[in-house]
Amino acid sequence: MVQDIKNQTRIILDSIADGVFTVDADWKITSFNRAAEKITGIKKEEAVGRYCWEVFKASICEKGCSLKRTVETKRPIINQHIFIVNSKGDRVPISISTAILKDKSGNVIGGVETFRDLSVEEQLRKELARQHTFFDIISKNREMQRLFEMLELVAEHDAGIVLMHMRGEPRTMQRELDYCHVVAEVHSHLIDRAAAAMAAGVPRERVWLDPGIGFGKDDDGNLALLAALPDLAAHGHPVLVGPSNKSFIGRLTGAPVGDRLPGTLGALIAVLDLPRAVVRVHDAAAAVQFLEIAVRVREVSA
Fold first, then answer.
1. Looking at the annotation, which residues are catalytic?
2. 265, 287 in Cβ contact below 8 A?
3. What is the pLDDT along the chain (302 residues), one digit of tens a residue?
4. Which pairs count as long-range contacts for 152-158, CB under 8 Å and 24+ apart, including other chains?
5. How far apart are CA 268 and CA 265, in angstroms?
6. 3-state SS track over the chain
7. How many Å apart are CA 25 and CA 18, to the nearest integer?
8. Prediction pTM value
9. Which of 46, 132, 186, 297 is the most buried (most CB within 10 A)?
10. Which residues contact 275 (CB under 8 A, 6 or more apart)?
């Protein structure tokens, strides 16, 4: 009987044109319908059991999850426009609505979110507006307009561009260390900005991504981003990383700034499996020697 109800529920969910997913109290996905698979490019079997931010990498993950806000306030959110990153690394505009899930006793046990792909509507809107936007980045600020022009200038020449993640500015960045999921949020931010650069005409292979090690992250966040470099590279962009002499090495090892070369070289292990990478270091000769030997050992053991 219970299995029949589950099957019937599954059939109903798969018949809905909008994407639908549910999460439990730990924010892990418990159901994922067919439309959700189509919009995200991720199979149900890959999504269920994972944290929602790992699957959607939405533009709101970094500053405030709507589903989390609904669970906390008990108030639904209707037709909020956001962006997610699909399995191909493409930016997809969607409209989301959220609600809470309760058990028979009225206890909140999770949340449900529906979402609709707005790609067609978005393209029509831009064509009708007849204006060039950088993925909805519109500004009358002269400095921002210079940035838009710079992207076009880069696209016209054989130059590359490095996009680095940082919250705030250097003097305030270490005050903003509260992430819901640092890897998902940083990667989503970078892919979003990379999409804008490519929209301006910069080829993917010339758009370098830098997770900003030491820029607005705590020690665990820096380590997690280093470990996740292969996932960032999987989006097809070359990667730049600069862990050299960073303060997190000092905090983890107790080494002063002048004695952090061993820790720097240890951090470079994370780039060994990347197809294209650049490392920013203070002692270039030591880094080159370390990487040459490490790569050869890796090749022999492969």
1. 246, 280
2. yes
3. 445 556 666 777 888 889 999 999 999 999 999 999 999 999 999 999 999 888 888 767 666 788 888 988 889 999 888 888 888 888 888 999 999 999 888 899 999 999 999 888 877 666 654 444 555 555 555 665 666 667 767 776 777 889 999 887 778 777 777 788 899 989 998 998 888 888 778 889 989 999 999 998 999 999 999 999 999 999 999 999 999 999 999 999 999 999 999 999 999 999 998 999 999 999 999 999 999 999 999 888 76
4. 152/200, 152/201, 154/197, 154/200, 154/202, 154/206, 155/200, 155/201, 155/202, 156/201, 158/206
5. 5
6. CHHHHHHHHHHHHHHCCCEEEEEECCCEEEEECHHHHHHHCCCHHHHCCCEHHHHHCCCCCCCCCHHHHHHHHCCCEEEEEEEEECCCCCEEEEEEEEEEEECCCCCEEEEEEEEEECHHHHHHHHHHHCCCCECCECCCCHHHHHHHHHHHHHHHCCCCEEEECCCCCCCCHHHCCCCCCHHHHHHHHHHHHHHHHHHCCCCHHHEEEECCCCCCCCHHHHHHHHHCHHHHHCCCCCEEECCCCCHHHHHHHCCCHHHCHHHHHHHHHHHCCCCCEEECCCCHHHHHHHHHHHHHHHHHHC
7. 23
8. 0.58
9. 186
10. 233, 238
The token pair that represents 280 in the structure block: 């920013």
Matching residue, tokens 């809107």: 125
